[in-house]
């Protein structure tokens, strides 16, 4: 049962269209997906050949790349999506067991109150934005499974951004704006303020970080951001393909 202390749920509580996640590496980060029923989860994975994440020098950020290395106990069907022990890129479908990879199951909450949102100190677990009906959520997830969700970007288009779009149909405008991911938005305003405060006054570091993090997490949540607009999934795929084509042309010049 989801409450302010934990979002952990049992499998019996799962419903098609749910946005679920599981923590990785001792709660360092979470991997997200959309449960579509019949014990299946559609999720967005990192391109094994995409060097973008590895360009970040911090070992913390680099560790996100390991969220897509699964154990050797994957079922036969899901193991077909692997290449040299790593997943194929893009939007893929897994059985629930392989998605969880031995971890616990958590439910991402929508339409939470501002007080509830701020009480959840860790980002990437809930949003004040409203979810669309489950049939719309599943339709978007299945459509993106066939047509893709664009290139993986740790800061603007990651595994959490995928289910958040499926659940709401909301995108930042312009696309170059920061993504929807709560754990990334939270992270950006935790590490930097804490590091600066440590130099000025170590005793005030924690208080400064908590206050700054709470204010930024609230203002960057997709439920209150003014730059979020609704976009049909067919249009979303068309725009993403166009933008990536333009980027590809620029890189070849």
Q: How many β strands by DSSP?
A: 9
Radius of gyration: 18 Å
Largest sheet descriptor: 5 strands, antiparallel
* Spatial strand order of the main sheet: 6-3-2-1-7
Mean of pLDDT: 78
Number of helical stretches of at least 4 residues: 9
Shape: globular
Distance between the termini: 54 Å
Structural class designation? alpha+beta
Q: Could you estimate the helical fraction of the residues in percent?
A: 25-40%
Strand content: 15-25%
Query: Which runs of at least 5 residues are low in confidence (pLDDT < 50)?
Result: 48-68
Q: Can you offer a commentary on this structure?
A:
With 253 residues, this protein is of the alpha+beta class. It is 39% helix and 15% strand. It has helices spanning 59-62, 76-79, 96-100, 114-119, 134-147, 161-168, 182-200, 202-220, 233-252, and strands at 19-24, 29-37, 40-45, 82-83, 86-87, 90-95, 106-107, 170-172, 228-230. Strands 6-3-2-1-7 form a five-stranded antiparallel beta sheet. A two-stranded antiparallel sheet has the order 4-5. A two-stranded antiparallel ribbon has the order 8-9. A hairpin with a 2-residue loop joins strand 2 (29-37) and strand 3. Helix 5 (134-147) packs across helix 6. The chain is globular.
List its traits.
about 250 residues, two-stranded antiparallel ribbon, globular, 9 strands
């Amino acid at each position: 049962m989801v409450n302010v202390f934990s979002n952990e749920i049992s499998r019996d509580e799962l419903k098609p269209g749910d946005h679920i996640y599981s923590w990785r590496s001792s709660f360092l980060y979470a991997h997200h997906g959309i449960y579509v029923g019949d014990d299946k989860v559609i999720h967005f994975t990192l391109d094994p050949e995409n060097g973008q994440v590895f360009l970040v020098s911090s070992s913390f950020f680099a560790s996100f790349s390991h969220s897509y290395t699964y154990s050797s106990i994957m079922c036969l069907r899901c193991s077909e999506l692997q290449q040299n022990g790593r997943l194929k890129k893009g939007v893929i479908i897994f059985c629930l067991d392989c998605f969880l990879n031995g971890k616990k199951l958590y439910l991402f909450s929508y339409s939470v109150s501002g007080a509830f949102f701020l009480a959840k100190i860790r980002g990437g677990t809930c949003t004040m934005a409203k979810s669309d009906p489950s049939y719309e959520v599943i339709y978007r997830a299945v459509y993106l499974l066939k047509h893709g969700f664009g290139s993986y970007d740790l800061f603007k288009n990651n595994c959490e951004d995928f289910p958040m779009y499926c659940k709401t149909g909301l995108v930042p405008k312009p696309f170059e704006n920061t993504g929807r991911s709560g754990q990334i938005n939270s992270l950006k305003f935790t590490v930097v303020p804490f590091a600066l405060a440590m130099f000025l006054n170590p005793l005030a570091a924690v208080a400064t970080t908590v206050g700054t993090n709470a204010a930024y997490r609230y203002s960057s949540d997709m439920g209150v951001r003014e730059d979020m607009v609704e976009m049909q999934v067919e249009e979303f795929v068309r725009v993403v393909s166009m933008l990536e084509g333009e980027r590809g042309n620029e890189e070849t010049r």
